[in-house]
Amino acid sequence: QVQLVESGGGLVQAGGSLRLSCVASGRTGIFYTMGWFRQAPGKERELIATISWTSGSTYYADSVKGRFTISRDNAKNLVNLQMNTLKPEDTAVYYCNRHPAPFGSWGQGTQVTVSS
Fold first, then answer.
1. What would the pLDDT profile of 20-72 be if each residue is shown by its tens digit?
2. pLDDT tier, 87 (very low <50, low <70, confident <90, very high otherwise)
3. Nearest to 46 by CA among 90, 3, 5
4. Alpha-carbon distance 95 to 89, whole Å?
5. CA–CA separation, 23 and 43 (whole Å)
6. Distance between CA atoms of 67 and 9, rounded to whole angstroms?
7. How many whole angstroms separate alpha carbon 84 and alpha carbon 76?
8. Are strands 18-26 and 2-7 parallel, antiparallel or unpaired?
9. 98, HSE (Cβ side, Cα atoms, 13 Å)
């Protein structure tokens, strides 16, 4: 089994920044792409960023492109999401998981709240 623990969320004013972290433990394997997802109240979970094992390939949803940066440290099974110029519409619970085939369980997520 794999355990995912997200952290770094909080309350921030519009225009501010946060850095999220995700640590994966257990039988993660190697050579997998990781993604950050978010779920706003009343909405479906959406994929917002991915990063390949080698970090040479990244993907960003249009809604976060140019503001968010995903990075990873494979030795530590760590994936980060630097979020700048935050907007109220970024308010959501943020999760990490493997993409496109998620690990069997999701973490608890970390709440990000952006006030206007």
1. 999 999 988 888 999 999 999 999 999 999 999 887 799 999 999 999 999 99
2. very high
3. 90
4. 16
5. 25
6. 16
7. 24
8. antiparallel
9. 17
Nearest one of 101, 75, 110 to 5, comparing CA atoms: 110
Return the closest-CA partner of residue 80 out of 11, 31, 17: 17
Check residue 30 and give its pLDDT.
83
The closest of 40, 42, 51, 44 to 97, measured between CA atoms, is 51
Sort 89 into a burial class: Cβ within 10 Å, 0-12 / 13-18 / 19+: exposed
- Say yes or no to pLDDT of 106 above 80: yes
Pairing relation of β-strands 2-7 and 68-73? Answer: unpaired
DSSP annotation of 43 reads S
Residue 10, strand partner residues: 112
